[in-house]
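Weekly modeling sync, notes
Attendees: AB, CL, MP (scribe)

Item 1: holo prediction request
CL wants a bound-state model with thymidine-5'-diphosphate before deciding which constructs to order. AB pointed out that an apo prediction alone won't tell us much about the pocket. Agreed to run with the ligand included and paste results into these notes for async review.

Input as submitted:
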Amino acid sequence: MKRGLFITVEGTDGCGKSTQIRKISDHLASLGCKVVVTREPGGTRISESIRSIILDPAYTEMHSKTELLLYSAARAQLVEQVIKPAIANCETVICDRYVDSFYAYQGYGRGLDMDMLKRITSIAIDNMMPDITFFFDLDPETGLRRRMDSANGDRIENEQLDFHRRVYYGYKQLAKENPDRIKTIDASRSVEEVWKDVRRQLDSVLGFVREI
Ligand code: TYD
C-alpha cells in the first residue's frame, strides 16, 4: 500500500464513538499498522485553541457564519499539519468527526447553504476525503439521555432537541448519498455487538486495500 488509510467516525452526540475508536485503533495496531488518532475540531495546537472558542458555552452570540469559518479553519490546519503527512507516511489516520459532521451540523442542523459548505470544505480539505466513515446510528433522544450524567454540555450539545433531530436526519441522508464510503452501524446495541459489526466492515476494507 503506497499510502495510509483514512478513517473517520461520525454520529450524534452521545453515540459511543470514543469507545469504538479505541477498539479500532487497538485492532489496527495489533495488525501492525501505525495509527494516528485525532479529533475534530482540534488535533493541533491551533485547532485545539479554535475548538475552545467554538465550544465555549459562554459564546451564545456566535453567528452561524463565524461558527462555520472557525470549524473550517480548524479543519484546514489539521489536514495540513497532521492528516496529509500521516497518510503520505503510510500511517492510518482515525479522525473523530470530519466533514460529515460539518454537513450534518452546519448544513442540516443550522440550515446553512450546502453548496457554500462544500466550497469552503474544498478549500479546507484539498481533496482529503476519508476512505471509510463509520456512522454510529443512534437517535438523538437516546444519545442526549446517555450524556445527561456528564457535566454541563458544550455550546453545541446545549442546542435544542429539534437541532439534534435535524443533525440526525442529515447523517441519514449523507449515509444514503454515500453508501460506498459511509458504513451505518446500529449504535443502540451493546459495545461488543457494535464492535463486531465495525470490525467486520473494517476487515473487509483492509482486505480490499491490501489487494490494490
Ligand atoms: P465533541 O465534544 O468533540 O463532541 P463528541 O464528543 O460528541 O464528538 O464536540 C464537538 C461538537 O462540534 C459536536 O457537538 C459536533 C460539533 N461539530 C460541528 O458542529 N461541526 C463540525 O464540523 C464538527 C467537526 C463538529
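Recorded for review: Strands lie at 6-11, 35-39, 92-96, 132-137, 182-186.
Action items: CL to compare against the apo run; MP to circulate these notes.
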